[in-house]
Amino acid sequence: MAGGAVGYVGYDCVRYFEPKTARPMKDVLKVPESLFMLYDSIVAFDRFYGIIKVISYVQVPEGQDDKGLEEAYAEAGRTIDRLVDVLESPEVVLPKQEPIQLGQEYTSNIGRDGYEAHVTKLKEHIVAGDIIQAVPSQRFARPTNLHPFNIYRHLRTVNPSPYLFYVDCKDFQLVGASPELLVKSEEGRIITHPIAGTVKRGATPEDDERLADELRSSLKDRAEHVMLVDLARNDVNRVADP
């Protein structure tokens, strides 16, 4: 019994759900396609309400008697007390950071020519009716000696997105900041909020309002948003009852 699973499902796993997308792939990153870690003790920080909840699940072996159950409950309570002591400690241990090496160059996994070739191929598939929409992508990489957790801390400052994450998978770390939620399951409901259409911020509140009106009235952006909502609805319908 565990309190929750934390992890990820990589984009390349789409071939397990959409077999038509399967093709030979080079394992460049050398990390699992998907990974989930189960935890029996959790510190949950609700930033909206400013509340911290410390949770420890009671481990109850099969066939346990009342005395064993009481001891398991007491052990969970002791675990919570230990975690609270750590949280209340005035000493905050941060990872050691060596001087940062600047001037490193980014490299793309496919380059400009490869990316443009992807776009051309996708256009052909759209004209042929194979697909109605696609998002071509490329991966940029650069060496750095900045600790992953410090990258996360900087992201919190320069890009405080609603969905920030730092996941330590021991051999590698995941760090990210996303403005949108892909999908959420809550109390028997599946929730998704596709985002489409963007515009730069204005210099004044009046400019912001004008640009927002232009975005709302844009036929192109509205069509893109409707398309994303329709795609999301179709995917949800595969696993849920309306």
Tell me about this structure.
This protein has a domain at 194-242. Helix content is 36%, strand content 19%. The protein has six helices and ten strands. It has helices at 14-17, 66-88, 111-128, 148-158, 205-217, 219-237, and strands at residues 4-9, 34-39, 41-46, 51-56, 107-108, 140-141, 163-168, 173-178, 184-186, 189-191. A hairpin with a 4-residue loop joins β3 and β4. The longest helix has 23 residues, at 66-88. The protein is globular and about 70 Å long. The mean pLDDT is 89.
How much is the average pLDDT? 89
Low-confidence stretches: none
Strand fraction: 15-25%
Biggest sheet: strand arrangement? 1-2
The helix-and-strand class reads alpha+beta
Quick recap:
With 242 residues, the chain is of the alpha+beta class. Helices cover 36% and strands 19% of the residues. Strands 1-2 form a two-stranded antiparallel sheet. Strands 3-4 form a two-stranded antiparallel sheet.
Secondary structure blueprint with pairings:
Layout: E1 4-9, H1 14-17, E2 34-39, E3 41-46, E4 51-56, H2 66-88, E5 107-108, H3 111-128, E6 140-141, H4 148-158, E7 163-168, E8 173-178, E9 184-186, E10 189-191, H5 205-217, H6 219-237
Antiparallel strand pairs: 1-2, 3-4, 5-6, 7-8, 9-10
Features:
242 residues; alpha+beta; two-stranded antiparallel ribbon; 10 strands; 36% helix; globular; Chorismate-utilising enzyme C-terminal domain-containing protein
